[in-house]
Design a protein that fits this description.
70% helix, 2 strands, elongated, Leucine-rich Repeat Variant, 287 residues, mainly alpha
Length: 287
């Protein structure tokens, strides 16, 4: 019986042809089995990979939502603390909001620029400076607010964004806020140099003076030639301001250009130049 079954199997094996899965070639039985097995394994692996990837995506999205909700809750907690009567609590909340750097913190922080406590206002300035450009639009709206204008101007000077230049430049001719705008532009530094150099030829003497003061604080050698030109200004105070700015920059070209002012027609200018030159000689001796 067994021999008969064996003969039948052998006969069937010899007469049967196995075709590959793609139908392009005939294969022995063992090779077909291997091909089928590989195909099933590959399909199973693809399905497993897709399931794992889908699960990981869902987990990542859930984690992001959780973190976002947590940050949102923390922001709301800190904003509520801005209404506390204790200025220390308000200041600490402001510092925390600044460190978060979230755009949702901007408006509450800008409102704090009107706070009755100067330390709270200073903390708000620094916090908004940390947030940077996202705070500019709101600050430009509040620059119209008289009570908040000084701290707003100071804040704008701490944000390196070209949008702050025009408002600050326009305030250079404002009698009440020109000094605030000048120091804000000085703190802004190099990004403000081009606009300040343009103001050196402004018909208003006050504007020219303020521009010179700002350039003297920035102390950039690229301003030297333009400041030397201002040593010839018809206004004595502008000549004196230009000499002081060149002294701060410390460029040799500026020092040489300042020396002829020892014969300036204005006594105040001459006295200031004498002290300036005496200080240079002392520095040279001590060097």
């Amino acid at each position: 019986m067994r021999d008969d079954q064996k003969n039948i199997d052998e006969a069937f094996s010899d007469q049967t042809e196995f075709v590959s899965l793609d139908g392009k070639e005939k294969l022995p039985k063992d090779e077909l089995v291997d091909e089928v097995s590989d195909a099933i394994t590959a399909e199973s692996e693809e399905e497993t990979t897709e399931i794992v990837a889908s699960a990981e995506t869902e987990v990542t999205e859930e984690e992001e939502e959780f973190v976002e909700e947590k940050v949102k809750n923390e922001i709301e907690i800190q904003i509520d603390l801005l209404n506390e009567s204790d200025w220390v609590v308000r200041r600490e909340a402001i510092i925390t909001l600044g460190e978060m750097g979230d755009e949702r913190c901007v408006e509450p922080l800008v409102r704090c620029l009107r706070d009755g406590d100067w330390q709270v206002r200073e903390a708000s300035i620094e916090a908004l400076a940390m947030i940077g450009s996202p705070a500019v639009d709101m600050l430009l709206r509040y620059v119209r607010d008289y009570d908040a204008r000084k701290p707003v101007i100071k804040t704008l000077g701490k944000i390196n964004d070209e949008r702050v230049l025009d408002p600050l430049i326009s305030l250079m001719s404002n009698d009440e806020f020109k000094d605030d705008a000048t120091w804000a532009l000085a703190e802004l530094g190099k990004p403000a140099i081009g606009r300040l150099l343009e103001l050196l030829n402004d018909p208003e003497e006050t504007t020219r003076k303020q521009a010179i003061l700002a350039l003297g604080e920035i102390k950039d050698a690229s301003c030297v030639d333009s400041l030397i030109e201002r040593l010839k200004d018809t206004n004595w105070f502008i000549r004196l301001s230009a000499a002081s700015a060149l002294e701060k920059i410390g460029d040799p070209r500026g020092r040489e250009a300042v020396k002829p002012l020892i014969k300036d027609p204005d006594l105040v200018v001459r006295l200031r130049i004498e002290r300036m030159m005496a200080a240079w000689k002392k520095q040279a001796v001590n060097a």
